[in-house]
Specification:
- With 239 residues, the chain is α+β, with helices and mostly antiparallel strands.
- The chain has a domain of 152 residues: Nucleoside Triphosphate Pyrophosphohydrolase.
- It is built from six helices and 14 strands.
- Helix 2 packs across helix 3.
Length: 239
């Protein structure tokens, strides 16, 4: 991944990830450590579910396109990865929906207590999973829209978008963003999201956060969101 820019926001044309049905080599090599780590997680956070996610290898950028190979992997493997971030050919790439109101705000969410990211504030997003597999490839764009719909109740199909994507990487974490310009004000969108959180069957989201400047997101926003907000609100560099 050395050719993918690190610790700065840059533009991207698309993402192309091809599915390999074999196990990820890193998972095979670290199976015992992954299982031991999950055993501890089950004691500390018994509400977590060890479902199936997607991890990647061989990520590189060619002519504005991130390419790589993807593998099904357990959520336990993902949690172990993000707790260690080894210097190995393994990556966690995911997509985020940057929802923008007609009056210039960014709509973020705060994660609920019984999640792996309790209290963190970021754009609607989620780990890639088997539902994002389409004809042997990973549909990152579809994942972005699906996660936004599940977490906020918003259908982004009618929103205005830019031709390209935005991206940020640190080590094996690769965050891909698409900005969606909505026709409604922040007040209207936040009420719609709040209603969805209150009435939705899932309990992953605690609150909606309206951001008009980076500091509005608070201290729990992860590094990739801080970089994206600085770029979007023109308080930081963009490639």
């Amino acid at each position: 991944m050395a050719d993918i820019p690190e610790n700065r926001v840059f533009t991207l044309d698309s993402v192309r990830l091809d599915l390999d049905e074999a196990e990820h080599p890193w998972v095979v090599q670290n199976r015992a450590a992954i299982e031991a780590h999950w055993a501890r997680e089950e004691i500390e956070r018994p509400w977590l579910f060890n479902g199936t996610m997607i991890l990647h290898r061989g990520l590189r950028i060619e002519d504005g396109v991130i390419r790589g190979v993807s593998h099904r992997a357990s959520y336990a493997a993902l949690l172990y990865l993000v707790s260690t971030w080894p210097r190995a050919d393994v990556a966690h790439l995911f997509g985020s929906a940057i929802v923008l109101s007609s009056d210039g705000a960014m709509l973020l969410i705060r994660m609920a207590r019984k999640t792996a990211n309790s209290g963190k504030v970021y754009a609607p997003a989620g780990s890639l999973d088997p539902s994002d597999i389409a004809r042997g490839r990973i549909d990152v764009e579809g994942s972005i829209r699906r996660e936004a719909r599940e977490e906020t109740g918003l259908d982004l199909s009618g929103a205005s978008t830019e031709p390209g994507l935005m991206c940020w990487r640190r080590g094996g974490l690769v965050a891909v963003f698409r900005r969606f310009q909505m026709e409604q004000t922040a007040a209207v969108l936040s009420r719609r999201i709040a209603d969805h959180i209150r009435t939705g069957a899932e309990e992953e989201i605690e609150d909606v956060v309206v951001v008009r400047k980076p500091d509005d997101a608070g201290p729990t926003a992860p590094a990739y969101m801080k970089a994206l907000m600085a770029c979007h609100f023109n308080t930081g560099p963009e490639d």
